[in-house]
Amino acid sequence: MRFQIPPHIAWPSLVIFILGIGISSVTYTVYQAQKDGGVAMVDDYYAQAADWDALASARGAAENWSGTISWSEDTPPRLLLDLQNAEGEPVSVDDGTIALRQPHQAKPFFETGLSEAEPGRYVHTVPVLNNGLWDATVRGTVNDSPVEYTVRFEHSR
User: Fold this and answer.
1) Which of 54, 56, 105, 121 would suit a FRET pair with 147, their CA atoms being 20 to 30 Å apart?
2) Is the domain covering 45-155 a CATH 2.60.40.10 domain?
3) Spans of all domains in the chain
4) What is the pTM of this model?
5) Alpha carbon of 78 to those of 26, 54, 70, 118: distances in Å?
């Protein structure tokens, strides 16, 4: 004897099952979209767009720089940033700041003034960073000209 579901139960059950799949997929999608904090809004995006030429010239002033990120061996580990110009000479940034952020985030995770340990080397104690890609953005002035330089690095500890 074969088990059969009566049609007056099977068809409504199929419809409910399909609706359940739709509701489950929407719930999962909303959860995945919100689990990292949701939308990353850029603060004052209009002012950034209006000052685009100034930002582009600041980035262009540091276009030929090279930068390296390393970590000290002491506890807590300190971020060591070395900046050189195209000739390999150390770069000293006046009135500068450093901001750390992950590329997919709009707001910086950490921002502080630059502290130069020796010419071209900047040392900072930073909060614990997640593993992954990070951008260290240096903003300041060199010879009274605004500069902005970003070093992308991968952090894994």
Assistant:
1) 105
2) yes
3) 1-37, 45-155
4) 0.71
5) 43, 32, 8, 15
